[in-house]
Design a protein that fits this description.
The structure is a homodimer.
Chain A: H1 3-8, H2 12-35, H3 38-45, H4 49-53, H5 59-82, H6 89-104, H7 113-121, H8 127-152, H9 162-183, H10 187-203
Helix pairs in contact in A: 2-3, 2-5, 2-7, 5-6, 5-8, 6-8, 6-9, 6-10, 7-8, 8-9, 9-10
The structure holds a DNA duplex.
DNA sequence: CCTAAAAACGAACGTTCGTGCTATTCTGCC
DNA sequence: GGCAGAATAGCACGAACGTTCGTTTTTAGG
């Protein structure tokens, strides 16, 4: 009946919800998913607490929706552009490059959303923690598949343990994000990029040139709001 | 006058303070430094809120004291035993080994205290964040000096950038802690240990045997309270 | 043993949090 | 253009937070 119409003309509520979540995601990346307070979020969006609250029904559901919204942004900003590259080593390299761009250019104001969220919830069992863990597993799987593809294409040595390599790449990424957030150390990204490149060299079958995919992500900055550098 | 006496016979207040901080450190490693609530801490120690509060004067001071207490434990459990090893490569290796033991055996209930704390406060300027950042810099410096010593002893190639290597080691450690806390993935530690070992092999001048310092830290478990495995 | 100081307590304050109601305003379809 | 239903606002609640204050208990030196 009205399902088609409802889907076509997006109700106002859906638009509000989306607006709220956009703000929520950035707020949460700075203050944490718990520091993300309904009152604060209402003030930031110009809504009333109760009006905003009605969209979600509970704080936990708001947090869950925020995590999912962050996931969508991550997919849009990192996964999708990286998947434009050819399967195998090129895609793996671009996944890394774009991830570093993503973390360094503050796609989320407080650095990598999921690095922050997983640290916050890693000792608190529940739906939120599970969702975050699932998303991180997705990411590790994306890395792993890129590696396996590269192996099948003969670009990476078959002896390499894909899970091991994915773990190491992810650790360097998280380490870089950690150093940037805690110290404001931008060099950490240079170091992490170099470490990943070097690591790929040790297990690649052919040459791995240094600057192969750097020019790629020169589309617009992802956020319009200029960040005045902390 | 009474200074000597006061110093010798430790007043009861100091003992209480220490007891409180011991509990606080473990609570904070699980719930976060903000989740560390005065009421909860009072309940856990069997004190009254106000009685406990008087020891610190403000929540921020309690948090700072907790961070310092965690630092002392870290020094006692990681730095000091590692410094029993010979300067240079042996000490560097033992620093890594013992760190992995420290994180894996839950010296703090919620995994590495400082990994959790730095993620929590990295976007919140203030005294606490500064203190945590200083402590992490201390740790990176300890690693760096161990590397430099190893270079001066001719055990590590002089071309190696000590800061870079320290960064990579730290990233792998944090990555392992992250995977253990979020997924309960114990294998992550095997992977991180292997990665560190392999990384050391690439820059060492001589052989780097696999099991050199594993038998070392077979002193008692550091916490008496058995952790039922999450 | 006595006593001054130190330590711990109990109750309360002012805020802020998440959440539940009820009323009001707005939207989009006939 | 009116009307059902969705969206939002207003208000109040109970709980938990950090903090204060006056009182009571405990401690340790003379």
């Amino acid at each position: 009946m009205k399902t088609a119409a409802t889907k076509a003309r997006r109700a106002k509520g859906d638009r509000s919800r989306q607006t709220i979540l956009e703000v929520a995601v950035h707020l949460a990346s700075v203050e944490g998913l718990d520091g993300l307070t309904i009152g604060r979020l209402a003030a930031e969006t110009g809504m009333s607490k109760s009006g905003l609250f009605a969209h979600f029904g509970s704080k936990e559901d708001l947090q869950l929706a925020t995590v999912d919204a962050a996931r969508s942004i991550f997919i849009e900003q990192v996964i999708r552009p990286a998947f434009e590259a050819k399967k195998g080593l090129p895609r793996l390299r671009r996944l890394c490059e774009i991830w570093f761009d993503y973390a360094q250019n503050h796609v989320f104001r407080g650095g990598c959303f999921f690095a922050a969220a997983s640290a916050e919830f890693d000792s608190r069992p529940g739906r939120i923690r599970d969702r975050i863990a699932d998303i991180m597993k997705e990411w590790l799987e994306v890395l792993r598949w890129a590696i396996v593809d590269a192996q099948e294409a003969g670009q990476i040595n078959l002896k390499v343990d894909a899970i091991q390599l994915a773990f190491e790449i992810n650790a360097l990424e998280i380490g870089a994000n950690w150093a940037l957030q805690l110290f404001g150390d931008k060099q950490a990204f240079t170091r992490a990029r170099a470490a990943v490149l070097e690591r790929l060299r040790t297990c690649a079958t052919g040459r791995v040139s240094a600057r192969a995919s750097l020019k790629v992500n020169r589309r617009r900055q992802t956020r319009s709001t200029k960040q005045p550098r902390r």
